[in-house]
Amino acid sequence: MVAHLALSFWLVLAVDQSTLQDFCVSQPNAQVLVNGLVCKDPKLVEANDFSFSGLHIAGNTSNPLGSKVTPVFAAQLPGLNTLGIAMARIDFAPWGINPPHTHPRATEILTVLQGSIEVGFVTSNPDNRLIRKVLQQGDVFVFPIGLIHFQRNVGDGNAIAIAALGSQNPGVITIANAVFGSNPDIASDVLSKAFQLDNGVVKNLQSKF
């Protein structure tokens, strides 16, 4: 019984907290630090606090990954603060990727607006099973909270997707950047043993991130 109660308590805390008021529009310049963003005075709230313009604009994909994420989080849309949701537009050049990454605080659901996009996520240890599928326009795919996942444009034209996330601040940990681009560096002998790579290869990878 105690185990069931503990599990239930954990599940309740696995998502953003419920609001205690109609809204809490973020006050970005507030000097007070809280777990989230400080609320703007409700008397000063206006319609623009609940609106964002720009998702019709294609992201610049002229980078090594060939992708661009345009986020709509509480930082971009203050009215999202405390509401437990966010979204993003993802643009892909032909064969561009959104590299393996995780969202520590959110499940993600992806809808393809244009093109053919390969998606996948990896289950946790010990199975590490890859669940993958190629999506077409109008298809939807969900990535469970915290699991490593990726997207790749497998077409010769541009691709576009919209992602919805179950947190106002889902966070993102890009695996390669985090491991090989930490500040300061993780000791190369740690990474060479973890990835079973030559120390020189590890140092070369660190130099790229």
From TrEMBL:
The terms under GO molecular function for this entry are: manganese ion binding
GO cellular component terms given for this protein:
apoplast
Cysteine disulfide links: 24-39
Which amino acids does the record list as binding oxalate? Answer: 98, 103, 108
Where in or outside the cell?
Answer: Secreted, Extracellular space, Apoplast
Keyword annotations for this protein, in alphabetical order, are: Apoplast, Disulfide bond, Glycoprotein, Manganese, Metal-binding, Secreted, Signal
Task: Check the record and name the CDD domains matching this protein.
Answer: cupin_OxOx
Output the SMART domains linked to this UniProt entry: Cupin_1
Q: Which SUPFAM superfamilies match?
A: RmlC-like cupins
The record places domain Cupin type-1 at: 53-203
Binding residues for Mn(2+), per the UniProt record? 101, 103, 108, 149
Q: What does this protein do?
A: May play a role in plant defense. Probably has no oxalate oxidase activity even if the active site is conserved.
Name recorded for this polypeptide: Germin-like protein
